[in-house]
Write a structure and sequence with these properties.
By secondary structure, the protein is an alpha+beta fold. It has a domain at 14-58. The protein has 2 helices and 2 strands, in the order αββα. A two-stranded antiparallel sheet has the order 1-2. It is elongated, with a radius of gyration of 26 Å.
């Protein structure tokens, strides 16, 4: 596709593939990769929270504590 001024039109996905973070340890990361890692970590945190909260719901005390001092 060509714009009115004769230049080729840029795709909307081109912005996602441009490098966002350049680091010697991590390398070159695009916004899609950063978003994917963020969503993966969010999914792990949600899974952990769901399992722990479900375990706390099922937790029942065996007997009440009688602390005689």
């Amino acid at each position: 596709m060509i714009n009115v001024d004769g230049r080729p039109a840029r795709s909307a996905t081109i912005g996602f593939s441009n490098p966002v973070l350049v680091n010697s340890f991590l390398g070159i990361l695009s916004s899609i990769e950063i978003l994917a890692v963020f969503l993966f970590v969010l999914f792990l945190a949600w899974t952990y929270y769901a399992r722990i909260s479900n375990d706390f719901k099922k937790l029942m005390p065996i007997k009440s504590l009688n602390l005689d001092l």
